[in-house]
């Protein structure tokens, strides 16, 4: 009996421990396996699967020795999962990243340059897309698409409140706010929830007012300068004029089901094209107006190239570079832009069937700004977002909130070098 | 045969698979965290020994001190609340005669739903135009910003956690109640003890081992609350729900300060250990 028990337990233990093992990927029977983590760039799940399956097959047909695995990941928790994967040197060979994420990984020496992957084709990419994905002159991401944001308006609410022209400057937004507030309609959906990227909430206002997140040398915070204070004070003034929803401090930037899509708020200032479609579904397409970037001291539209980045620990770097180059090609870029509603990062390719709304977004491409790229860009958001919430909840003045956040950021930058 | 199965080596073999997993996934990482906390380890792999620098930094860090305060307040709200609800429902279930199984399953149901799912549902319920504010509006109250008000956010989150988690404690307490011989209660009833006296003098003392277990696991769970905060508030508003686990997560995965995150983890471990020891002293005297 005891022998039976021991044998059974030993087997159970073996199975348990076998589950703890991992696989390193790489070569299998002479084939190089390239694993890529892709995200829902194409919003529709079925379309997304069909598109990436086709990309995989087309590439494999042309490159017999390479097996590609495209793993779909959710946007949620991207930073954490990518960081963990790079640190453990497992998970992917290629991954889709934005320009503000790349410098931190370059600093950690966990990603590898990709200049040689697109050397022959470099002139065909938008120069600002290449610059955004480069660190210290080296290209770390092959641009496969370009996003752009623009303000989306519910024209009906403006008309009902007697605002005949769509505001073009932040001053005009502030001036129009009381008229809409009289109809109990806040003018701006400001998404103050800490999990919302500041690139899509506070920073576009800061940049339009001529401010920046970091000092020129990148060693200190700069968002608490006069431009930053003016930007936050603008939000507080707008709030006072009834221009923000009561729960602006905790709102997320999800358009579907939001007060904006319910016809209760007039505008969101940093929407992606999909946001305009969702707003149309909520309030009627005929009521949606896509504006140009709202002007302060200048016009700025947050827009980033999506870059395919190579993990330094990849054991199939050459095959991965080939695949990255294929993803950046005019052929794939055109199809991806058509399916995703984004734009291409190339000058020789554009989506084949852009909707009228998408064409309005395209006009903002010339004002595209990829954000302050800095190794601590994401960390600064963690420190700043709660302080912005405090100001919006009346607990701190604009200057206090920004100074407190700047102190945290400066300490952090000093501690991490 | 019976003698052989009671053999200590056989016993050890039975617990060995779990022991191995515990050592690999709990004990070794904990030692690793303790080691990390005295270094300045970077994700790239470089590190040097820095002694207690990370621990000293904690006490000058307003975010850590804020997170510590939030953690303690959350535990202070959550533990009594969950104890009250699970004990109340266990007592009710114990006295129910019909459809016991259905009631028990229904009350246990939230426990087996995902925390993320529960968080999303409760977020809708708490919203300005959500279910609860809809009810309040019917009596001309509100809207109340349950997740927007710094004073209300922790009780609101604790309520969700209690709803989600009380089923488990309820079952433990129910098992405890079932093990109390009915003859004790009958004898007390014959002697003229009322319901409160029977509960106070018979049920509560005999339920002490189960209560001790529930209080300890619920306290540890409350110190480690994360999912519900992550899904519902992201630590906000204004860090009013930013607890130690959230700070650890932000430092480790947001700021890449892995060593500093490990330091927070060790402090949390010490805190939980001390509180558990105090609880053991206070509650478990009669069982030791």
UniProtKB/TrEMBL annotation, chain A:
<protein>
    <submittedName>
        <fullName>Multiple sugar transport system substrate-binding protein</fullName>
    </submittedName>
</protein>
<feature type="signal peptide">
    <location>
        <begin position="1"/>
        <end position="18"/>
    </location>
</feature>
<keyword id="KW-0813">Transport</keyword>
<dbReference type="InterPro" id="IPR006059">
    <property type="entry name" value="SBP"/>
</dbReference>
<keyword id="KW-0762">Sugar transport</keyword>
<comment type="similarity">
    <text>Belongs to the bacterial solute-binding protein 1 family.</text>
</comment>
<dbReference type="GO" id="GO:0055052">
    <property type="term" value="C:ATP-binding cassette (ABC) transporter complex, substrate-binding subunit-containing"/>
</dbReference>
<dbReference type="GO" id="GO:1901982">
    <property type="term" value="F:maltose binding"/>
</dbReference>
<dbReference type="GO" id="GO:0015768">
    <property type="term" value="P:maltose transport"/>
</dbReference>
<dbReference type="GO" id="GO:0042956">
    <property type="term" value="P:maltodextrin transmembrane transport"/>
</dbReference>
<keyword id="KW-0732">Signal</keyword>
<dbReference type="Pfam" id="PF13416">
    <property type="entry name" value="SBP_bac_8"/>
</dbReference>
From TrEMBL, chain B:
<feature type="transmembrane region" description="Helical">
    <location>
        <begin position="72"/>
        <end position="93"/>
    </location>
</feature>
<dbReference type="Pfam" id="PF00528">
    <property type="entry name" value="BPD_transp_1"/>
</dbReference>
<feature type="domain" description="ABC transmembrane type-1">
    <location>
        <begin position="68"/>
        <end position="279"/>
    </location>
</feature>
<feature type="transmembrane region" description="Helical">
    <location>
        <begin position="210"/>
        <end position="232"/>
    </location>
</feature>
<keyword id="KW-1003">Cell membrane</keyword>
<keyword id="KW-0812">Transmembrane</keyword>
<dbReference type="GO" id="GO:0005886">
    <property type="term" value="C:plasma membrane"/>
</dbReference>
<keyword id="KW-0472">Membrane</keyword>
<feature type="transmembrane region" description="Helical">
    <location>
        <begin position="258"/>
        <end position="278"/>
    </location>
</feature>
<comment type="similarity">
    <text>Belongs to the binding-protein-dependent transport system permease family.</text>
</comment>
<keyword id="KW-0762">Sugar transport</keyword>
<feature type="transmembrane region" description="Helical">
    <location>
        <begin position="152"/>
        <end position="175"/>
    </location>
</feature>
<feature type="transmembrane region" description="Helical">
    <location>
        <begin position="12"/>
        <end position="38"/>
    </location>
</feature>
<protein>
    <submittedName>
        <fullName>Multiple sugar transport system permease protein</fullName>
    </submittedName>
</protein>
<feature type="transmembrane region" description="Helical">
    <location>
        <begin position="105"/>
        <end position="125"/>
    </location>
</feature>
<dbReference type="InterPro" id="IPR000515">
    <property type="entry name" value="MetI-like"/>
</dbReference>
<dbReference type="GO" id="GO:0055085">
    <property type="term" value="P:transmembrane transport"/>
</dbReference>
<dbReference type="InterPro" id="IPR051393">
    <property type="entry name" value="ABC_transporter_permease"/>
</dbReference>
<dbReference type="InterPro" id="IPR035906">
    <property type="entry name" value="MetI-like_sf"/>
</dbReference>
<keyword id="KW-1133">Transmembrane helix</keyword>
<keyword id="KW-0813">Transport</keyword>
């Amino acid at each position: 009996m005891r022998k039976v028990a021991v044998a059974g337990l030993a087997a159970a233990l073996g199975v348990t421990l076998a589950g703890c093992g991992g696989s390193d990927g790489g070569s299998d029977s002479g084939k190089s396996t390239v694993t890529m983590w892709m995200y829902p760039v194409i919003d529709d799940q079925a379309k997304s699967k069909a598109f990436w399956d086709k990309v995989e097959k087309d590439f494999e047909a042309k490159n017999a020795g390479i097996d590609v695995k495209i793993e779909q990941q959710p946007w949620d928790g991207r930073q954490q999962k990518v960081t963990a994967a790079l640190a453990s040197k497992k998970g992917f060979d290629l991954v889709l990243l934005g320009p503000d994420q790349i410098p931190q990984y370059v600093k950690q020496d966990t990603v590898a340059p990709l200049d040689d992957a697109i050397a022959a084709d470099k002139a065909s990419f938008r120069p600002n897309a290449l610059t955004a994905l480069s660190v210290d002159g080296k290209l770390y991401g092959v641009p496969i698409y370009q996003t752009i944001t623009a303000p989306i308006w519910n024209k009906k609410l403006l008309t009902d409140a007697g605002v005949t022209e769509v505001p073009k400057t932040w001053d005009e937004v502030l001036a129009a706010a009381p008229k809409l507030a009289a109809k109990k309609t806040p003018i701006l959906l400001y998404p103050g929830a800490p999990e919302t990227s500041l690139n899509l909430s506070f920073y576009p206002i800061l940049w339009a007012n001529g401010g920046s997140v970091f000092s020129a040398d990148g060693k200190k915070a700069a968002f608490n300068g006069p431009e930053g204070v003016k930007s936050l004070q603008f939000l507080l003034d707008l709030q006072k004029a009834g221009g923000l929803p009561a729960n602006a401090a905790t709102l997320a930037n999800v358009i579907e089901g939001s007060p904006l899509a319910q016809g209760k708020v007039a505008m969101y200032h940093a929407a992606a094209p999909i946001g305009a479609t969702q707003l149309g579904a909520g309030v009627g397409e005929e009521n949606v107006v896509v504006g140009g970037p709202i002007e302060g001291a200048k016009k700025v539209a947050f827009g980033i190239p999506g870059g395919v980045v190579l993990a330094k620990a990849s054991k199939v770097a050459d095959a991965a570079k080939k695949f990255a180059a294929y993803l950046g090609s005019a052929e794939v870029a055109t199809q991806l832009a058509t399916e995703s509603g984004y734009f291409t990062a190339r000058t020789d390719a554009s989506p084949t069937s852009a909707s009228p709304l998408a064409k309005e977004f395209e006009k903002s491409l010339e004002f595209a700004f990829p954000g302050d790229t800095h190794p601590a860009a994401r960390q600064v958001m963690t420190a700043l977002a709660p302080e912005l919430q405090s100001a919006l909840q009346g607990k701190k003045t604009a200057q206090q909130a920004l100074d407190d956040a700047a102190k945290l950021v400066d300490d952090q930058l000093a501690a991490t070098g | 045969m019976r003698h052989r199965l009671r053999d200590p080596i056989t016993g050890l073999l039975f617990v060995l698979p779990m022991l191995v997993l515990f050592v690999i996934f709990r004990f070794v990482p904990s030692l690793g965290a303790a080691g990390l906390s005295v270094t300045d380890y970077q994700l790239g792999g470089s590190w040097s020994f820095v002694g207690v620098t990370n621990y000293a930094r904690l006490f000058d860090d307003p975010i850590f001190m804020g997170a510590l305060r939030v953690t303690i307040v959350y535990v202070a709200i959550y533990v009594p609340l969950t104890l009250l609800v699970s004990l109340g429902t266990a007592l009710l279930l114990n006295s129910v005669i019909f459809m016991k199984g259905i009631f028990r399953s229904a009350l246990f149901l939230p426990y087996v739903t995902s925390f993320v799912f529960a968080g999303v549902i409760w977020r809708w319920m708490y919203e300005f135009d959500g279910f609860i504010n809809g009810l309040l509006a019917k009596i001309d109250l509100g809207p109340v910003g349950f997740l927007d008000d710094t004073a209300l956010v922790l009780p609101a989150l604790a309520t969700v956690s209690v709803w989600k988690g009380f089923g488990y404690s309820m079952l433990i307490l129910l098992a405890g109640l079932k093990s109390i011989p009915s003859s004790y209660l009958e004898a007390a009833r014959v002697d003229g003890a009322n319901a409160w006296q029977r509960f106070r003098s018979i049920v509560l003392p005999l339920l002490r081992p189960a209560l001790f277990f529930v209080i300890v696991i619920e306290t540890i769970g409350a110190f480690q609350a994360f999912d519900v905060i992550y899904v519902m508030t992201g630590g906000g508003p204004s860090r009013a729900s930013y607890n130690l686990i959230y700070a650890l997560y932000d430092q480790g995965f947001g700021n890449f300060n892995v060593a500093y995150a490990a330091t927070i983890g060790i402090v949390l471990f010490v805190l939980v250990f001390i509180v558990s020891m105090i609880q053991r002293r206070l509650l478990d005297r009669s069982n030791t």
